Known about the structure:
By secondary structure, the chain is an alpha+beta fold. Helices cover 59% and strands 15% of the residues. α1 runs antiparallel to α5.
Amino acid sequence: MVLLFEELNLLKGRMMEETEGEIIKLSIAVARKIINREIAMDPDTVRRSVHHALEFLKDKSFVRILINPGDMKTLEHFLPELTADNKIQKLELAEDNSVEPGGCILEAGFGRINATIEDQLAELETEMEEILHAGGGSIDGALP
């Protein structure tokens, strides 16, 4: 009976190791769907993305914001607010088809901030994998 229990535990461990990577990928896919739905329902998402990304910029003398063409109208409406709230001296908006709706890329002085949705999801996936590996390769060991 003890031997059977040990074999079942080993089998469970192998199954978890084999499926944890797939669970992470599935989690990211679900998150992507939820985010895309939220963006479609709330065009203000791009304003929040830009506002949040601006907090990380040190040099705000000139800021160039690359956004999806579909977000241009929304962001143009909030341009005075973004400039005043963040003490930006000069701000330029530019359309970029490679930027997904709701995301942005900021260029300023010596830095560039990628606040695209895809980049944030890739970072989340990397962090999830690091947590998994820090826990000895098991979700059970990685969680508090």
